[in-house]
Amino acid sequence: MLEGLFAFLFQFGDAFAFLVLSASGLAIIFGMMGVINLAHGEFIMCGAYVTVTAAHAGLPLPLAIACGSLAAGIIGIALERAIINRLFDRPLDTIVATWGISLIATQGTLILLGSTMPGVGTPLGSFEMGSYSFSEYRVVLMVIAVAMMGGLYLLFHRTRYGILARATIQVPHMASALGVNTKVMHSLTFGLGAALAGLAGGLYAPTMTLVPTMGTAFIVESFVTVVVGGADVFLGTAPAAVVLAFIKAGMTSLYGQLFGLIGLLLTVIVVIRIMPRGLSGWLLRGRE
Amino acid sequence: MAILQTRDLEKNFGGVFVARSINFEMQPGEIHCLIGPNGAGKSSFFRLILGQHRPTAGTIWFDGQDITPLRSYQRIRLGISVKFQVPGIFKALSVWQNLEIALQDNLQGDSLSAEIRQVLDFIELRDQAAERAGNLSHGQQQWLEIGMAMSVKPKLLLLDEPTAGMSPQETAKTGDMVRTLNAEGMTILAVEHDMTFVRQIAQQVTVLHFGEIFAQGTIDQIVADERVAKIYLGKTNEA
Amino acid sequence: QDGEPIRIGILEDQSGEFAAATIQKVHGAQLAAAEINEAGGILGRPIELVIYDPQSDNRRYQELMRRILQRDQVDVVFAGFSSASREAVRPIVNQFDALYFYTNQYEGGVCDANVVATGAVPEQQFSTLVPWMMEQYGPRVYTIAADYNFGQISAEWVRQLVEENGGEMVGEEFIPLGVSQFSQTIQNIQEADPDVLMTLLVGTAQASFYEQAASANLGIPMGSSVNVAQGYEHRRFDPPALSGMHVTANYIEEVDTPASRDFVERWRAMFPDEVYINQPGQNSYVGIYLYATAVEMAGSTDMAAVREAIQTGDVCVDAPEGRVCIDPASQHASHTIYLVEVGEDHSITIPQVWENIEPYWLGEAGCDLTLDEDPDAQYTPSNPPPAR
Amino acid sequence: MQIIGLRSGYGGKPVLQGIDLEVGKGEIVAVIGRNGVGKSTLMRALMGLLPATAGQILIADRDVTQVSPHKRARMGLGYIPQGRDVFPRMTVAENLAVGETLLKRGIDPDYKRIYQYFPVLKERATQRAGTLSGGQQQQLAIARVLVGRPDIILLDEPSEGIQPNIVQDIARNVRDLNRELGITVLFVEQNLDMITLLAQRCFVIDKGQIVASLSAEDLNDPETVRRHLAL
Amino acid sequence: MSDLASREGTAGATGRAGGARRRWRPLRTLARLNGPQTLGRGPAFWIGFVVVCALVGIYPLFSDGWTVGNTAYFFTWTFMAMGLCVIWGYAGALSFGQTAFFGLSGYAYGVLTLNFGSAYGFTFGALLIGVAASALLALLLGYFLFYGRISGVFLGIVTLSVTLVFETFMAQTAGPEWTVGSARLNGFNGMTGMPPLTLPWFDGDIVLWPDIPLYYLLMGLVIVCYLGLRIFVNSRFGNVLVAIRENPDRAETLGYDIRRYQLGAFVVGSSLAGLSGVLYTAWGQYITPNSMGLYAAALPIVWVAVGGRSDLTATLVGTLAVLWVFQTLTIYGSQYALVVMGALLLVTVLFAPRGLALGLVDLAGWSWGRLRGRKARNGQGDA
Ligand SMILES: Nc1ncnc2c1ncn2[C@@H]1O[C@H](COP(=O)(O)OP(=O)(O)OP(=O)(O)O)[C@@H](O)[C@H]1O
Ligand SMILES: Nc1ncnc2c1ncn2[C@@H]1O[C@H](COP(=O)(O)OP(=O)(O)OP(=O)(O)O)[C@@H](O)[C@H]1O
Ligand SMILES: [Mg+2]
Ligand SMILES: [Mg+2]
């Protein structure tokens, strides 16, 4: 009984971590900045590739993951400077631009680095709980996910950078008239989103196959989580992940992966129908 | 019979009351002005009438009918029309199209074009007919919105700060227009901070404060009211 | 005619989802063509390859198949990795009544006069693997399989063979394509506690299972018909993710016979950067040779003549894997099946080899392409061809 | 501040057709004119939100024509746009905090003074700015700039939508600021009261050009101003 | 002013309610071919249009079989693109799930024709039923969406979820238990064996293989749809659609029930996606769950956005251009094709903000202007 409960909690936490980690970068780039980033998966892929390369080069895994995140962040800033900043006043066109970036990134990686890359093993060991055994690394992922959500909320609501970044995104010309260097703000914020995506890639790199198309495994889940979260991304993403993870873990354990997947998507439809402005819209309904 | 009546109308946003048991009544053919400090709930009152806010309690009656359960567009179709505080125009569309969309339900074909031309002349945007509405200056956008609101000839016209951003002369012109429309039988409810304008048009004035009716009367009564001067008018030599 | 090249169309993915496993198919065909041309061609005519990249996209397969048949007028076409891409092009092949070689291993059952399917099919891989695994490790079997045609039909074979051999299915789970997270699945397996785990997972996302199972310390002997031989997971994952895996393949690079060693050497001379010479690569290579042999026997590239040659049952080649022949009734190929075992450090051993395993099922079930009919169907064990 | 032959416009469409104007340090100057003549355009061009196609803008004898808006802001230029442009999904307090960017190094924001001018902002510190009433937003927009203590303030129709007694307050406050801190003010206005209460000098714009300039005496006569507004 | 206000009855309430019903006047309807919502009007445009149609009409006579069949294939996609243009470009609702309708209609065509064959022109009946199925689904889904006030990205994600649910579900229908009548759904591998469109004729049926007859049929359909949609978006209905796109609240306070209009546009656009699905299925005798997946769902959005979503003509031209360029790259570009495609998309977005079609028009106008400018300058120099 207890064992079963723990097993379910583990599954829930696992699904939660996956949703939060894959969504956090997108929460900034799409949820906050309004850039419909179809290349999100490629930032994740980039983080994963760099992480693994660094680890093969002998760096300890945590450092390697940091490298992966950093690399994705730098690429993000470069892309923002070169392309995305021309598109802020027409966000819908970012669909095409980021799709183009995604094509180039995927196929470019294939051409340059080959169709696949050897992985690194999952660190840490496993622990037992009755007849089950679990990966310890997955627990680490859960902890990081929770920490990341909290950290982001604080960053964007409690720090000066966060306030200026949000101001820049909401009314850019006014922010600049108030002395905010909006270009730098945009770049930094986009870079941060990319870095978080890279971090997700780095964190999941040891547990997944490394191929240029690996980003697609994240993309639907991340978009769905951010959108169900609604307008206030930092208030919305975590609860959205909780709801979706609960449904997903529950359906998967009861009826299998197919229903886990379909259940997740149907939940999205139902949640949005009940709360047309997403979870955060609903949470803040009195104050809108 | 009152054309517009609210009974114990109440609305609050998580504790902030924007309307508190408002019992308001207007007779057909009246011009009524709603004034009050910033944040008193004037625009919110309009939104309640239009159905953009659902009241927490109370009912709204229009032309002898309880419209509280009706949706926004259904209320409009009963003969209400509005000019918002923040110009609600279709920014990416041309000035002409803005008017066409407002008018196309009443008119069609040549009479539609003729009417649009007439409105354009009146709001002095004839030369800008093909301009993107969002490219108009702030004042021109206000005029466009006024044009859209009045041209459909509603029974009740709601105007939220129609003269904001207008020069005194334009304000006077707006006042004339309101009076003419009223002379044709249209009932008008206007929110305004410009007391010259209020004086020019209003037969009755209601002062809102913290979502409540604070005072009601003719313009002279209101101006003479010390309490109103304290919360709203200040020591003005005008009016 | 004489001296004019024989045009062979190649539609194999060099980009997109499947590229990791299919770039080798292009290389295999190029190697075979180069060798044959060096040896004087087919009937004295050189081979010319017409190669397109359908980008792992079924629509591109359709567009390009039309082009390659209608405009490039190739004599034969080799195409497709996934079964979906094969099904996408089959109507077009049938419309133009062209000859089509499908060289990939697949779920079996295609009974189509225009199709020669030279890859291994489940009966060849499972009739060998399942009894062997049960004997070695025990009778309780759990299957996880990709939730689509290939996985479902393969699982059906496993189920049938387990029952025939007196074993017991303790669980069966189907995983939608593209799923990459397996915590719950691992837990389910632990709950059922099988002796043998059959993993019929497809695609790079699903391959993540191995790493995740290892890190949760699952430790159950695994059997598969797909992994390792196609996606060389033992090379891509850090040990010991794949340890305890057993695969029945008709070829992998590590096969240590003179023919194979020689083949690997030639391949690496032509493509020095090749990551791994996998089963699809070899199959593609052998496919070209099978076609060449058939044309030589027929004396022409005319489809009717080629098929007549196949119907003699003598179209055979000595391939790197061993001898491969085309079965006239089903136009499928016999294979040598290697039982590949992956060790703790991801080294490969081959504890057992079965030679000349026939693709018996389709013919026995009633598909007979030697008759003068033109079927174009696909059957499954639970939906067999109409009895004759 | 000095403006020489300034031309600007939107895309290919010229609006300002050579504006020459000078505002001395510590002056309060009004710009008036009919709807759509280019007053707001002038303000945007001064702030750098619209590029100048010709001409020069000098602030404290420094040519800032090519300088980006945020740098101009940090040089002490504060701008309050027409239509308020508050940050709608941020709280009132956060909106004000953005204004702190303008502060010179080492100077702390003086919220006490701000809240004294606009008490409602203190009450609503945690409300989202987008849900404020129109007049409250306008007050916030003004306060947001004042937080940063600029040397020059550009005000675009500050009285619009604000209740009469607060209009008077604003006028008084701006005058106080001007007197106490020497802040220079350039404002666009249509409200007669505000103009007469506040302005020391006044320019009249029509069709993108300055067509008249009124001295302090002229301003004392409401009729003159009225006539020019109706131009 | 007085003159404005004094026209007939002052209170317009009756006019509003009564104005909805009016006599249909064909000429007026035709005049709607031109209007503020579509680019291109006047004799020059329509002469150009006729010339293009004529060229497209005679070109198969000078081309080879593959090119004709392939162009017909391109045509099959344009309906989905034009439909999305109506929903997204005109009504402002970004639907990320048009492929759900594409798939539904495609499968419906397959199931129907596999069960009832192709005799007596039934394939066209199946086409109509397939499209009707999409219209019905769009009606239900649209009701659910628009009457639930779902908009913006939320709409996009819900529609995407719908198409992904369909995909996931259909992918696992491989087993023999998933049959409808005699039609196997056949899971991820896709459904095959349905007949192409077939016209009944006196001496036997004409089977419309991807060849000249099918080409003409599709070309006709494209032209009819294009013109029909032009009338649609320039009508009163279209006016309201763009108003809703610009400012839904304001449109509602002008007395329009915006949900009804959005729903209308959604049904029209989705039926067209369904039409594409049927035609595609008939073209290749094949339909898979894949055509409802994420990648497939993103494609129409890319076509429409690249072409220029704000205008039907731009969308149509852009879609055909993108399809053609991408295919050509695939044929000749080997491994680099996808990289070049990505780069082209970037270039288009950055340098043609209004979309490919209008970008080209702008470019032409610009170079023409320069040419004339140079001439004028030269002229001056001479003088
Ligand atoms: N969604 C909301 N949440 C919280 N408070 C709100 C909300 N909407 C409006 N308010 C508050 O309701 C009050 C009334 O606002 P309203 O816009 O009606 O004022 P008003 O009388 O029109 O003022 P003004 O003259 O400044 O336009 C304001 O204090 C405003 O802050
Ligand atoms: N974004 C824009 N794009 C194109 N033209 C514009 C734009 N904004 C304003 N204009 C045009 O520029 C001219 C001047 O506008 P501006 O806003 O400066 O007027 P204004 O003098 O401030 O008028 P108001 O008193 O109405 O605010 C107007 O004719 C307007 O149509
Ligand atoms: Mg208001
Ligand atoms: Mg202005």
SSE map:
The complex is a heteropentamer of chains A (288), B (239), C (388), D (231) and E (383).
Chain B: E1 4-13, E2 16-26, E3 31-35, H1 42-50, E4 57-62, E5 65-66, H2 72-77, E6 80-83, H3 95-103, H4 109-122, H5 138-151, E7 156-160, H6 168-183, E8 187-191, H7 195-201, E9 204-209, E10 212-217, H8 219-224, H9 226-233
Parallel strand pairs in B: 3-8, 3-9, 6-7, 7-8
Antiparallel strand pairs in B: 1-2, 1-4, 4-5, 9-10
Helix pairs in contact in B: 3-4, 3-5, 4-5
Chain C: E1 6-11, H1 19-38, E2 47-52, H2 58-71, E3 76-79, H3 83-95, E4 100-102, E5 110-112, E6 115-117, H4 122-137, E7 140-146, H5 149-164, E8 168-175, H6 183-192, E9 196-200, H7 203-215, E10 222-224, H8 233-236, E11 245-249, H9 258-270, H10 279-298, H11 303-311, E12 316-319, E13 322-327, E14 332-333, E15 335-342, E16 348-357, H12 360-365, E17 376-378
Parallel strand pairs in C: 1-2, 1-3, 3-4, 4-6, 7-8, 7-9, 9-10, 10-11
Antiparallel strand pairs in C: 5-17, 11-15, 12-13, 13-14, 15-16
Helix pairs in contact in C: 1-10, 2-3, 4-5, 10-11
Chain D: E1 2-10, E2 13-22, E3 28-32, H1 39-47, E4 52-59, E5 62-63, H2 69-74, E6 77-80, H3 92-99, H4 111-117, H5 119-123, H6 134-147, E7 152-156, H7 164-181, E8 184-188, H8 192-198, E9 201-206, E10 209-214, H9 216-220, H10 222-229
Parallel strand pairs in D: 3-8, 3-9, 6-7, 7-8
Antiparallel strand pairs in D: 1-2, 1-4, 4-5, 9-10
Helix pairs in contact in D: 3-6, 7-8
Bound molecules: adenosine-5'-triphosphate (2 copies) and magnesium ion (MG) (2 copies).
Residues 42-43, 85, 160 of chain B line the site of one magnesium ion (MG).
Report on this model:
With 288 residues, chain A is mainly alpha-helical. Chain A contains twelve helices and two strands. Chain A has helices at 2-32, 40-56, 61-82, 94-113, 136-158, 160-170, 172-177, 182-204, 216-229, 233-255, 257-274, 278-283; strands at 126-129, 132-135. In chain A, strands 1-2 form a two-stranded antiparallel sheet. In chain A, strand 1 and strand 2 form a beta hairpin. In chain A, helix 1 (2-32) packs antiparallel against helix 8 (182-204), helix 2 packs across helix 3 (61-82) and helix 10 runs antiparallel to helix 11. The longest helix of chain A has 31 residues, at 2-32. Chain B is globular. The longest helix of chain B is centred in the C-terminal third of the chain and has 16 residues, at 168-183. Chain B has helices at residues 42-50, 72-77, 95-103, 109-122, 138-151, 168-183, 195-201, 219-224, 226-233, and strands at 4-13, 16-26, 31-35, 57-62, 65-66, 80-83, 156-160, 187-191, 204-209, 212-217. Chain B has two domains: 1-79 and 154-239, P-loop containing nucleotide triphosphate hydrolases (Rossmann fold); 89-153, no CATH class. In chain C, strand 10 (222-224), helix 8 (233-236) and strand 11 form a beta-alpha-beta unit. In chain C, 40% of the residues lie in helices and 22% in strands. In chain C, helix 4 (122-137) crosses helix 5 (149-164) and helix 10 packs across helix 11. Chain C is built from twelve helices and 17 strands. In chain C, the strands form four sheets. A seven-stranded mixed beta sheet of chain C has the order 8-7-9-10-11-15-16, with helices on both faces. Chain C has 388 residues and is α/β, with parallel strands linked by helices. Chain D is of the alpha/beta class. Chain D contains ten helices and ten strands. In chain D, helix 3 (92-99) runs parallel beside helix 6 and helix 7 (164-181) packs parallel to helix 8. Chain D starts with a strand and ends with a helix. Classes of the chains: A mainly alpha (288), B alpha/beta (239), C alpha/beta (388), D alpha/beta (231), E mainly alpha (383). The complex binds adenosine-5'-triphosphate (2 copies) and magnesium ion (2 copies).
